[in-house]
Amino acid sequence: MEAQLRVRAALLLLVLAFLSPLARSSSREIQIVNAERRIDLTSHIVKVFLTLKVENIGASPTSEILIAFPPTQVDRLAVVKAAATVGKRKKKSYLPLDVNPTELPDAPNGTKYFSISLLNPLGTGESATLEVLYILTHSLEPFPAEISQSESQLVYYRDSAIILSPYHIKQQTTFFKTPSTKLESFTKVEPTNRAGTELKYGPYENHPPYSFSPIIVHFENNNPFAVVEELVREVEISHWGSIQITEHYKLKHAGARHKGVFSRVEYQSKPSFSGLPSFKHLLARLPPRVHSVYYRDEIGNISSSHLRTDPWKSELEIEPRYPLFGGWKASFVVRYGLPLQDFVFESPDGRRYLNFSFGCPLVETVVDKLTIEVVLPEGSKDPSAVVPFPVEQHLKAKYSYLDIIGRTVVVLEKNNVVPEHNSPFQVYYTFNPIFMLAEPLMLASVFFLLFIASVAYLHVDPSIRK
């Protein structure tokens, strides 16, 4: 019995030893000839542009390329996009590629991977150039965490001078772009060079897979850290000719917390250095042909907002009742109407569909939690939503005035939303026009019953009334 167990254990070890090289064979078949990373730190939304020239040095074709992220960036990833570069110089074009999260059994220290699917398999000795964009939120850490009204805002950004990758990298360079020339400190990994608002790390050569060199950049960033903790947008469709949009905002300044007493006199008399990280207005880009716009908070209507419209776009400048400093919050509601024919169409199969923009209309804003509720006309059936990225979906019912059976509501939810999520989405449904007569018939019936009641009252015997 013991001999059989020993044989089985030996066979198991042999299988594991055979499978282990297979699990890592994909990383040995690909090498990165050149990697250039540009990190934009000019806003509180960190944008990273990564250019990779990859080469297949294995014996078999490969159809995917892996990119890796450290565990400190996993929960802060908002967008990961990739495209293949075709042509050169003026004839260069970009073809979008599918990017999906994936897992490796031997991933070190909680590393997360995304798989980029190539348009055509990369043969032995062939190379390709990929453009990758990924966006990080809540990645700038204010330091000091509290500042007074007259102080500038300084923040930390933590990353690696060496690009984390499951492949061997022959040459790589990283560039940081800061919003100003005021750079408090930065980690030096030679060669490191600084020129104006740009900080350059590299070039570094011949780094093995999973190399990592942590760095910290401490710099000035007085841009407003506008974060919407929760946004609930209701899109109510009426086939009588309009769409009503109602947006409930819970806004926060996520920068360094304000300490001390706020002086409005100093804020208005010395705007060049007082309250630089604060913001007193936000810009919302609304669809064209918007009408019936109003903006209010818990107290009431705010008339200091400004609306600019033209045939192509509408811009609403929102001014809270008070400027927002770090840690301060504001809640408000924006409501407006849109023409039905601009956003609701009929598909070839006879269904109707709403074509609207996902995301938040506020410029340069992060939304921690976005909920979109599409209220379909009463009597709508078979609703379905098509969104270009993963979201949570479910249905619920809503009852409004004169409703009989209630209205179907398609609810879409997504966390960590950035301006790049402002892409069109569609909600399909079937609708019988006969339901448009329900409310007019109900109103007519009510007026008829009131008329009958009034006539009956006027014909009551006067002796009885006395």
Describe, in plain words, how this protein is organized in 3D.
The protein is mainly beta and 466 residues long. Helix content is 14%, strand content 48%. It has a ten-stranded mixed β-sheet. The chain has a seven-stranded mixed β-sheet with strand order 20-23-17-16-26-29-28, with no helix packed on it. Strands 8-10-15-12 form a four-stranded antiparallel β-sheet, with no helix packed on it. A hairpin with a 6-residue loop joins β4 and β5. It is flat.
Number of helices: 5
Rounded to an integer in angstroms, the radius of gyration calculated over CA atoms is 29 Å
Helix content: 10-25%
Q: Give the low-pLDDT segments.
A: 1-25
End-to-end separation: 111 Å
Mean pLDDT: 86
Main β-sheet: number of strands, strand sense, barrel status?
Answer: 10 strands, mixed
Query: How much β-strand is present in the residues?
Result: over 45%
Number of strands: 30
**Widest sheet: strand ordering:** 3-6-5-4-7-2-1-11-14-13
Principal-axes shape call: flat
Structural class: mainly beta
The protein's oligomeric status is single chain
What's the gist of this structure?
Helix content is 14%, strand content 48%. It is mainly beta and 466 residues long. The longest helix is centred in the first third of the chain and has 28 residues, at 2-29.
